Amino acid sequence: MTTLDSAYDHSRLDGVRRKRMLAFLVDFTCICILWLIACVVVGFLGIITLGLAWLLYGAVFPIVAVLYSGISISNRSATPGMRAAGLIFRSETGEPPSFIQGAAHVILFYVTVTFLTPLILVISLFNSRKRLLHDMLIGVTVENA
């Protein structure tokens, strides 16, 4: 790991923590708008299926969040919020991020925030690449574009 860190261009990490907070706000807003649209669709499907589709309401937000992050990260190496903040998503291997990495990133983010809220942020203060806990778990770095 030290060879990767010593060869890494740390100037690409200036202001990343602050930009990630802005990116989260933009992405969360986009996900909530898509979630509301999906809830309306599920509501109409519930009418057509005599209430059966309404059982999907509990799964709508996670599905929207996973699809939003997975598709946007795999297609453009960043979510719309990350692009607005000038950030990109890089895997440790140098390969473009996959849908699975984008989906795992958002799933691990919400799981770790739920159970370890302060720890995911504190960890970024003590590692050289300013990565959060869920970044380390899937082997990615978020850096300036």
From TrEMBL:
Keyword tags: Membrane, Transmembrane, Transmembrane helix
Main location as per UniProt: membrane
Lipid bilayer topology: Multi-pass membrane protein
Membrane-traversing stretches: 21-48, 54-73, 107-126
Pfam families in the record: RDD
Keyword Repeat assigned: no
Localization in the cell: Membrane
Residue stretches making up the RDD domain: 19-138
Domain of life: Bacteria
InterPro entries: RDD
Protein name from the UniProt record: RDD family protein
Organism of derivation: Flaviflagellibacter deserti
